[in-house]
# Entry
Amino acid sequence: MASARVASPLQEFRGTPAAVALAFSLYGLFGGLLSLLGWVLDMPRLADWEGDGISIQPNAAAATIGSSVALLLAVSGRKMPAAFIGALVMTLGILTAFENLSGVNLGIDHWLLFGREWGTGGTTAPGRMAVPASLSWSFLGASLVLASGRFAPRHRRSAPWLALPPLALSTLSILGYLYDSSRLYAVPGLTAIALQTATYVFALAVAAIASVESGPMKVFGDPGSAGIATRRLLPFVFAVPVLTGALRLAGERAGFYDTAFGVALHNLVEISLLLALLWWTGLAIVRHSEQRRRAEAERGELLAREQEARREAERQATIRDEFLATLSHELRTPLNAILGWTQILRADRADSTKLDQAVDVIERNARLQARLIADLLDMSRIIAGKMRLHVQAVDFAAVIGAAVDAVQPAADAKRIRIERVLDPLDDVVHGDPERLQQVVWNLLANAVKFTPRDGRVEVVLTRVDSHVEIRVSDSGEGIAAEFLPKLFERFRQADAGTQRAHGGLGLGLALVKQLVELHGGKVTAESEGLGKGATFVVQLPFAAAEPRAAEPPVRRLSAGLKPDDAPLPALNGLSILVVDDESDSLEMVANLLEKRGATVAVAASAAEALDQAVKRRFDVIVSDIGMPGRDGYELIKDLRACGVTTPAIALTAYARNEDKAKALSTGYQGHVAKPLEAAELLVAVSALAESA
# Structure
């Protein structure tokens, strides 16, 4: 089953150790094949590199090939064949060791001799490898079986340690050849081993150790300081003593110095090299530690930023959820009043005492909902960068006066006194009067909302250095110190829960901040704490340009504001065509115009309106813009193309200044935004009729 399979050592352990295992395995494979080929082709030199009569035996060459193939199979992930071949190598080594130690001939030494009579130096029997080689192949075979077989992890971890005895034996023999000490490699029955056999065993022992990530390689592959020191020092642990020993021996044999001097020189050179290696490794560890500290610091910073981003995302999600709940509440509340009173009126048409109350409630809540929608649209345009200011010289006294008039009914309902202190301004401030009126109205409405009955609100206009300052103060609830930094954030309210005492979406002050900044100014808030009132200060720069004639601010009725008591114009004798695809809106406008004495024709589409306007003369056309099929823009173009010159008013929910400009440029003579003010529409119709 797949779950029982143990991953290949070299598949699990990548990098330099795996490369070493692969390279040394290939060396053993090609070397073993070359040595065996010497016996097959009767070429002694291929089996005796040193030429000293000590040849690698055929079964030793076969063990070399088998061990190499087993390691390469392990690399490719074929574990069971690798373990099987390792078991064969181990068996061959054990049986040969038994022959050497017991003197019993098992007949396994002649299988691959091919009848050759050479290569018997250092052997106890023709074709029989010596004790060091047989023991080495026994341990190496066992190591391969444990590394590649289906054994428990604790058994597998012992595999590299079984390769250490062959590594030690082969190293001893190689040193004997290097130092020309035959006692280390050429004593029959004790140390005899061919040079190439020693190198094969050494290479395959290293490959076996490197092929398993546990044991010695656990330290070698460590990414920390231990791994760095091991990887740097290990090659020199072998190389330095061997080379310095060889140099000392060569000097002594050449007669350059005696043994005592040679030992002293050997120690001096070895100590110097080891100190240099230690210093080199220490510097590498220091650099690694510094890099690790920097990496940990960067990781800590990334983690802190990630946690901060998560907290911010959670905060924004909370604000969003609170806003959606508030939006639902604020939109449903006026609808509840509107729908409730319409049902009352329908159920009790004869109760005239409730009629005025119902009309007031419906109008007030409809205006409230219109204000909410307008604030949402304004904020959306600001966020999208599409808010455009229609800049001109501003009459601040008129702007503040219009804003005070708009908020006065709400203040009167709570008996709140609004005081004005307006200094005359000699310099000019350029801005959008409509948006600045919106700023002042929002601040005043906010002050009235949070000021208790019989309170006071003051608005002050004055010059301060190079800017004009509008200061709105109240004697209301005040602002908690911890909420002041969040005051101008979108959708933020001090009482944002379900038990909040005041309505609103939390957009008013955010709009104030955005609009003031669009004018190049700034707005701040001050409060000494809860119950001590609040003061909002708007600062706007004076303009350097020449003053232009200021237009009166656009008066937009807001929640709680009633129309003026001025008489509405009469439309007696006027013939008016009203175009709208919404039947309720169409009937309402027609009824409004008829009550002022006009004769009204209606059309529910652009095609129907075009047909009537061509066949009949009208004094004024009032048309919606957004209609299915052909819209109001196409209608006015078609009318003008047909020679109809009747003045026209666009009555539309497309209420932006750019929408007004588009309507006028398309061919309309007037623009009235929905939801309409009766007075605004009637005045526009009357003015157009008189100018025609």
